[in-house]
Amino acid sequence: MSYSNLEIWGIIVALGIGTFLIRYSFLGLVGDREIPAWLLRHLRYTPAAILPGLVAPLVLWPEATGGVPDPSRLAAAFATVAVAYMTKGTVRAIAAGALTLYGMQYLLG
Amino acid sequence: MRSTTTKSAYFQGIKAALPFIVVVTPFAMLFGVVATEAGLPLTQVMAFSALVVAGASQFTALQFMSENAPVIVVLASALAVNLRMAMYSASLTPHLGKAPGWQRVLAAYFNVDQAFLLSHTEFERAPEASVPEKMAYYFGTVTPIVPLWYLFTFVGAVIGEAIPAEYGLDFIVPITFLAMIVPALRTLAHVVAALTSILLALLLVSVPFNLGLLIAAVAAMMVGAEVERRMS
């Protein structure tokens, strides 16, 4: 790393302020003003619209394997989704995913 | 009565977030380790976790910094990773927008993925709860997560021992997100939105600055809303 101390502090503080402003944006500026019904209808789908797309490339092309699909990670993702779907239990699904990941890694050496 | 119900909402939030301790702890430690190994002193490692409070963007910034990228590129890349939080902010607004200004400032600072997801799911399940109850639940979900984010960044920075890649710690975060989102796909519209998101995010994966994900997300929200409109 070849930055000056001041540059590193600049990065940290600017990233902190920028991230806060992103998080504050609507919550702070819209506040208690009325939000139109069509927009509310879109906002209901925020988690469903972001997380699956965020996770999909990480499952198919994990960085830890240099972007090559990895049987243990694919199986772990599948087990997580299956248990989450059947039981609706987040904790059980995480446990199933972690057990599958480590079990597969153990079996495949 | 109000104080009793807000108090119980706060404890419900804590309870809902407790399991995520096992996810946040290693992730925070990993950041402390990697940032220290990249050459940052303890004060700067801690400042990162205390001011930014967003793991994925902190790792992104570190990665670009270790490649000695121009400052503006470091900032643009790391902030782009956080743009999804503008959508989080927007979808919390119908529930928390009527809260006092200082509470909204605090809520914005603490808006991490897990707190948002747990709270949004709860607010959709029980939309009739009062604003103080919803805010109490939200801060409840923050309580077990963010202090540990600081603490274990510190532990990682001080211990400074790399966690070997074969432990597959990188995959804890995707597993958590999958485990959280699947039970929240309550209707056909949610499922169609999720599938759209996956398909477009994979197709647009090479769009720079992570913007492919945002395009995919906006399209998926539109698809979800449209399916809901047609089915109602």
Largest sheet of chain B at a glance? Answer: none
On the 0 to 100 scale, the average pLDDT of chain A is 92
What oligomeric state is this?
heterodimer
Q: How many H/I helical runs of chain A?
A: 5
Q: What is the string of helix and strand elements of chain A? A: HHHHH
Structural class of chain A: mainly alpha
On the 0 to 100 scale, the average pLDDT of chain B is 91
State the shape of chain A. flat
Tell me the radius of gyration of chain A.
20 Å
Number of strands of chain A: 0
Ranges of chain A where pLDDT stays below 50 over 5 or more residues in a row are none
Element-by-element helix/strand order of chain B: HHHHHHHHHHHHH
| Major sheet size, sense and barrel closure of chain A | none
Low-confidence stretches of chain B: none
How big a fraction of the residues of chain B is strand?
A: under 5%
**Which percent range fits the helix content of chain A?**
over 70%
Number of strands of chain B: 0
The gyration radius over C-alpha positions of chain B equals 19 Å
Largest interface: A-B, 76 and 95 residues
Helix/strand/pairing class of chain B, anyone?
A: mainly alpha
Give an account of the 3D structure.
The complex is a heterodimer of chains A (109) and B (232). By secondary structure, chain A is mainly α. Chain A contains 5 helices and no strands. Chain A is 76% helix and 0% strand. Chain A is flat and about 50 Å long. Chains A and B meet through α1, α2, α3, α4 and α5 of A and α3, α4, α5, α6 and α7 of B.
Task: Write a brief caption for the model.
The complex is a heterodimer of chains A (109) and B (232). With 109 residues, chain A is an all-alpha fold. Chain A is built from 5 helices and no strands.
